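Protocol step 4 of 5: obtain the predicted structure for the target chain.
Materials: sequence only (see below). No template structures provided, no constraints applied. The aim of this step is simply to have a reference model before the mutagenesis design in step 5. Sequence pasted as it appears in the construct record:
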Amino acid sequence: MLLYRISNNRFLDAVIGKTVNAAMYLLRVLNRFIYSGKKYNNTLTIISLHKLGDSILTFPTVNYFIQNHQRPITLLCWDSTVTLYKFAFPNLEIDSVKKSEFLWGTRIASKNARKVLRSKSSETIIDITGSIVSVSLVSLTGYRKLIGFSNHYLKSIYDEWVTERSIPHLRDKYFDVVRLIDSTAEIDNFVLKKESTNFKGRILIHPFGGWAAKEWGINNFIALAKRLKTNYEVKLIAENSESIKDERITKLKTIDDLFYEIREHDLLIGNDSGPIHLADMLGKFTIAIYGPTNPNYCKPYGENNFEIFGNAECRPTTENYCYLMGGLLCDDYKCMNQLSVDEVYNQICKIIEKINAS
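Step 4 output (C-alpha cells):
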C-alpha cells in the first residue's frame, strides 16, 4: 500500500527510486567483492516465492528452463508449495524456505534463509519472484549472474532485468524472464495429466481469497451451497489457517488435502484464488467470482473455466486491479456486495446447463 502511494507521487517516486537503486547497485558490487574467490557449479537456480495461484502461473516458465537448458536446474520455493511443484515437475530438484525465516512480515530474508541459497553455489540465479522478498534472499549469497524481473526500484541488483509488465496475462509476467534470454521463445499452455472432465454433479466450494475485497462472503457461499444441494452433491472447504469455525465447512490441513478434494469433485466454485487455478490444472470445471481483479489478467487458461462478475462502475476493465488497489483501499466492496445469491445461483445453473450440453 505504501509503495502504491509512493508510485503515484512523481517526486517521491523519482527520489526513492534513485536511492533504492543506488543501494541495490552497491549490494551487487559488494556481492562480487565478497565472493570473488568462490567456486560455483553449473547449476541454474530458479527462485519462485509465491502463493498457490501465482506458483501455478509460473509453470510455463519453469518448464521452459527444464526443457531448453542442459545444465542442472534447481527450484527454491516456499515450503507450502513444494508439493505443488513436485506434482508438476517430479524430477526437478526442489529446495524450500519457510516464511518464518523472513522478517518484517516475511519481506526480508534472515541469515538462515540466505544460507539455503548460498549452499547451492549456483552460477546463475533466475528470479521469477521479483520483489524485495527474493532480492533480500539473493543479497550477499554469492552468484555470477542474477536474471529476473521487478519494478524499477530494484532493477540495479540484477545483471539482466526486465520491467514488471502491466498488461495481461500474469503468467506472461513470469515468462518475460524467458523472453529476456530468448526473444523468440513462445509461451505454451503447460498441461499436466488431466483427469475426467465429465460433470457428475459433484460440486466443491472454496469461499476464500487472497484478501477480503476479493471474497464474495462466507454467508453468501453457504446460502448458495444450500440452494445447490437441492440438485447436486455440494461440499464447502477452507484452509486450516482460516479463522472461520462452522461445521458446514471442512477444514483442510495440507495442500495434499486440497488435491484430494478437487479430484473427488467435478466443479469448483470460488473467488479469484489459488484453488481455482489448481482445479483447472487438474482438468476440472471452475466458476470464479471476480470483483476488484480483472479476469483477463488472472483467469485460468482452458475451455473449462467460467467467470461471474457484477457491473459496478469501478470494476477494472483495462487494468489488473481496480483503482482502489484491488479493493485494499475500498470501504464497501461494492463490486462483490452487489452480487446477490439469486443472481449467482442463476448464472451457475446456466453454466452447468452449458457444461452438460457440451
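Step 4 remarks: The first strand starts at residue 41 and ends at 48. The chain is about 35% helix and 20% strand.
Proceed to step 5.
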